[in-house]
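Hello,

Following up on my earlier ticket. Below are the two sequence lines again, exactly as submitted.
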Amino acid sequence: MKKENQSSTDPRLGELLREARMAPGLPPGFQQNVWRRLEDAEAPARPASWLEVLANLVLRPRFAVTAAAVLLLAGILAGTWEGRQVARQDARMNYLASVAPATLR
Amino acid sequence: MGRPLIILLGAVALGAAIFAGSYVTARRATVVCCARPADDLSWLQTEYHLSDAEMARVRALHEGYRPKCAAMCAQIAAKQGEVAAALGGSTKVTAATQAKLNELAALRAQCQAQMLEHFAAVSQAMPPAEGRRYLAEMKQLALGGQAEMEQSMSGEMGHEQHH
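Thanks for your patience. The regenerated structure is below:
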């Protein structure tokens, strides 16, 4: 009762009270964002493409380390085999050079 | 689409680099380790599964053949010098030049015959199956290049004649 009497009699107080109760302004596009988030929450999950699946697999530490180890081992084995073939061919050519002069070959 | 593709391309590039790096390193290390330039014969023992006794016989044959091979090479080199001298700066093949060429060819044929005899002797010092393989391979390596060149040239000549 007393409050109502005060607000009706003091316009400045009434104005201050109205300003205090005013709600803060909404950020721009607030409503659109709310509706979009509601739609996203309601929509079914988009299936990941095969690229995304592969990329996620590659980024797993265990897979990455295993793949690197396999490639390293494969490179070593292939290089060793090739190196032995090259060494064998070089040895064969050296032997041939010692018994079959270039003038005959 | 962009980020997964970049990740995959990066992973493929990294994987290729790992493989290539290990391959090249292993290859070079193996070639260096396996190379034995001072010994021309050690590979024979590994390649043809020779025992120590067989290897010793092969080595003895090889050491006995090398002086003959060197002497023949010296004769051929001298004869080549004579052919070059006979030709001089001329483009004509005179009778004297032809004679020198015939002598050079005869020397080469003699050298080839000696070489084949040596291969046959070495093959007989090996186990039979390995000996046959050795002989076939040496014939192919020593004589095959010449035969291939002649075949390719005769093929080209036949092609030109058709035109």
